[in-house]
Amino acid sequence: MNFPKDFLFGSATASYQVEGAWDKDGRTMSIWDTFCRTPGAVRHGHTGDRACDQYHRYPEDIDLMYRAGIQSYRFSLAWPRIFPKGGSTPNPAGIDYYNRLIDALLDKGITPAITLYHWDLPQELQDSGGWTVRKTAEKYADYAAFCFKTFGDRVKTWITLNEPWCSSHLGYLHGEHAPGIRDRAMAYRAVHHLNLAHGLAVQRFRSMNLKGRIGISLNLSTPRPAARHPEDLHAADRAADGQSRIYLDPLFGKGYPQRHLDTEPAVHMPIEPGDMEIISSPIDFLGLNYYWEEVVRHDASAAEEFVAVPSHFKKTAMGWDVVPEGLYRQIRWVHETYGPLDLYITENGAAFPDRLDESGTACHDPERIEYLREHLRVCKRLCSEGIPLKGYFLWSLLDNFEWAHGYTKRFGIIYIDYGDMRRIPKDSYYFYRDVIAGTEPL
Ligand code: PNW
Where does substrate bind (predicted)? Predict the structure, then answer.
């Protein structure tokens, strides 16, 4: 049993996490530039000002991908590089950067896969309401259409949004991500406008008759029941509403999960006539970002009748459980509930406390290799069972700016020395290279 011949092995990053050059060539502030400058928001006051400096070092990064046989690079476009201040006048220097990046990838036979929005909203659009207002979804659709037109001759894989749940819930409910707001009503307005933004972009894409495929990347939560009791099974089912069904159901024409909204009395979804049709415009694939799985049990006193249960699993540096079988269960659930539809893992990987060895030229990361091995095995198994899983993007190519954790968490298969920006492939880089080549038995 092996991976299908056309299975795509890729790696992923996001603009704010790797580019740096925050004020170069006409780029203006995004909500993350602002958030990083808010005291107490990000560990050690770290910012993405320099990040991995991929803006200047992309040829080296592409070369590293090429030498590992990585077939596709999933990266995101920084909206405020392309439309400074969220305006409608495109910035030639920003566009030129992405043209150079795309052309350099294609030169090496690496397929670009573009995420249009990985959280770096132009600050000015936040100032006028951010995702709580409809106008932002409309601005996003114009931005998306411009990118399709500008890059669509060479880019055939488009991801509208990355993890909109993080934007709405971490950004507007928990306040852990930019814009750092804690307001339930605002968070759910953001949910709807993010969904609308996605749907509008899909419609614009179709209307342009471009060759290529468009989808979205979601981070689902599909918790496991603590015990095989009817109550816990019900608890696990309820637990999938707030993070998974709130995005999946409207995408697949089922509307918002009403029983979930019923537990959120302060919430009003700002739906206008026609919105749900726009949101459910057919997509070509669904991207799933999978890191871990939670366990829940029944609790009648909780609003949604479930509570999370601590587990005994091995943890990553993020404190996230290592549960490869959770990937298996999640993909089967998505396939059986919403499929058949082409699926991609658009992110999977792990942070561990990596250190360079004494020579400073190698980094031994056996735990990451084990994590990747087990999750790739699950992918292989799903393929062999006939699930249309078409590819895997490893998070991440490089150590990078891990949002509210700053640079304290390292997800890369390539180590970054943030002093001199040296790239040092970790053992997991060579492991992934051998998996792709088919010489590493999983
Ligand atoms: C995802 N959570 O973020 C993002 O797509 C990446 O940019 C990020 O680097 C990666 O996963 C690793 O964290 C998440 O707290 C951040 O639930 C936080 C959460 C989930 C995903």
Answer: 17, 118, 162, 291, 395, 402-403
